[in-house]
Amino acid sequence: MGRTIWKQSRGYDIGRFYVDLCTRMQFSSVRIRGRENLPSSGAVILAPNHVATLMDPLVMLLTCGHVPVGFGARSDIFGNPRIARILNWLRILPLARERNGLQEVAKNYETFDEIVDCLAHGVPFCMYSEGRHRAERGLLPVKKGIFRIARKALDEIGGPVYVVPVGVDYEYFFNEMGRLSVQVGEPIEVGAYIRSHEGVNDAEIYRGLCETLRERILDLLDHIPERRHDMLLPRALILLPALPLWLVLAVLSLPVWLPARLILLRCKDKAWTHTIYFAVRFFLPVFWPFFSGFALIGNHYLNFIKDCR
Questions:
Q1: Where are the domains of the chain?
Q2: Is 135 helix (H, G, I), strand (E, B) or coil?
Q3: I want to staple 32 with a disulfide (CB 3.0 to 4.6 A). Which of 60, 81, 182, 236 is the partner?
Q4: Looking at residue 1, what is its pLDDT?
């Protein structure tokens, strides 16, 4: 693959509007705070938590507005040359993990060059510092790979290199809709951190950077307000008359939720829930209003049943 993910593409830009719209429609509400913390110059590496497979990158695109963003993905999905070209057009680069073997991991150095090239052309790159997703609250240990790339960019590009912590909260991991909260935190200027630790060995510097990033991401999580668990009688008086509407919406949105549910029955990793619903809705926009109402009312019923217990 050529080092071209930073290049502008009109087709990509047009498609981006539709993708962002689909992402917004995936949730009952979207709240994004701290966009002013995104640096307007220098090399920018975005470092969000990772909980919802491919939904997380889509949320990051929405967070960054119309700014193009590069991403890394597991290298094994790049085996087919046609798929690899599509992923490259989507500004996605292959990153091998230790489980892929030393030969594949060695190819990461080529990808690191492409990431630095992307950063040098002013395109932010998003990396998930935990190394894998986990549909749970909290954060896995931060790996140092993100800072090794940041240091490589610092050495080759010069100028400031920022790692920006981002906290992504989903109200529901395994249900559609729900609220989405994104908090962009204060960036870490890697060069300034290294200069302030002059005389400290590299291992300690990377350890300190990882701890700093982890603390900042954790501070950005759990910002969805707790929903109310009381007022059962008033809620019942509202939800009972809504039942016929919910049943009608269930029938009208059948082409969306039925295929998604069937796919999820065969899917071992339920962290794909949001991604699968997004994919089905992406290709069936005509059913959006029906499915949104069906899922929203349905979640109210589920919450009511839980609270009654």
A1: 10-219, 232-308
A2: coil
A3: 182
A4: 45
